[in-house]
Amino acid sequence: MSNDIAITSQPGATVGTAAAIFSPEGMDRLVRFATLMADSKATVPQHLAGKPADCLAVTMQAAQWGMNPFAVAQKTHVVNGTLGYEAQLVNAVVSSSNLLSTRLNYRWDGDWSRVNGKSDKSPSLTVTVSAVLKGEAEPRELTISMAQAGVRNSPLWEQDPRQQLAYLCVKRWARLHAPDVLLGVYTPDELQETTPRVERDITPAAATAQGMNSLINSKTDQKEQARNEGRGPDEILKSFTDAASNAESVEKLDLIFNGGTWPDSKKRPGAKDALSGKWLEMATDVYNLRRDELNEVPM
Hints:
By secondary structure, the chain is mainly α. It has helices at residues 2-6, 17-22, 24-38, 52-65, 69-73, 87-95, 156-159, 161-177, 188-191, 209-216, 220-228, 233-246, 250-258, 271-274, 277-294; strands at residues 76-79, 82-85, 105-109, 126-131, 140-145, 259-261, 267-269. The protein contains 15 helices and seven strands. The model is unreliable at 1-15, 184-204 and 219-229 (pLDDT under 50).
């Protein structure tokens, strides 16, 4: 029984959650494994011990990522009733993703010799994360500074701020350049993709909540005109991702995603009103990740 899960750590052997759910035999194996896992004492954290349903959720997520369920379980915490995943685990998930053709590369700039990781807000202390996606030739980069690091509850911010900022940058890099990586679900044709991805030459995406709303709150004829000029769900998704990353509160994030009445008393739709299908799924994942981050759920 345990071997069925263990083989998911091998390349190409990732178990699809949908396949397991709709296969009586596959789901039965996962349930039996989760029950066994819940009976463990020293090998699972206290918040999972004796809780087969929670263990099943962790097991299914581990299967999607192709990782050992017990190792994944040790990297989880419950904060405000929500199960969160440690930054180290998220970093490992992104680094080992089959969507990447190279390992993640890091570059630190600035004088880190006297940095106070708990309080430093210097914009000159930065880390740049880059990686090449399969089917592409040029690396995609993202740079963030200590000034952009919000919640710093972990003691590691004081002990190793360079590492913590790198973890944060990896999460934001994945949300921006490959939001589906953290979903952990890929089809065989996506994994075997070898043809270069062709990106349209479009105008710069809106990086603020105001810019996001100007896109999704346009008149019907304006939407059609924008679409004809190259604006479509890809641009709206990127605009939402940028706006969500810049949201400073859960309330603002909710307005950007769900829509509602803004501080200027105007009612505007959200990103979920402008997107559908796979774009809405990816936007929802970005929303949930950013909401967890703002709620201080450890990632």
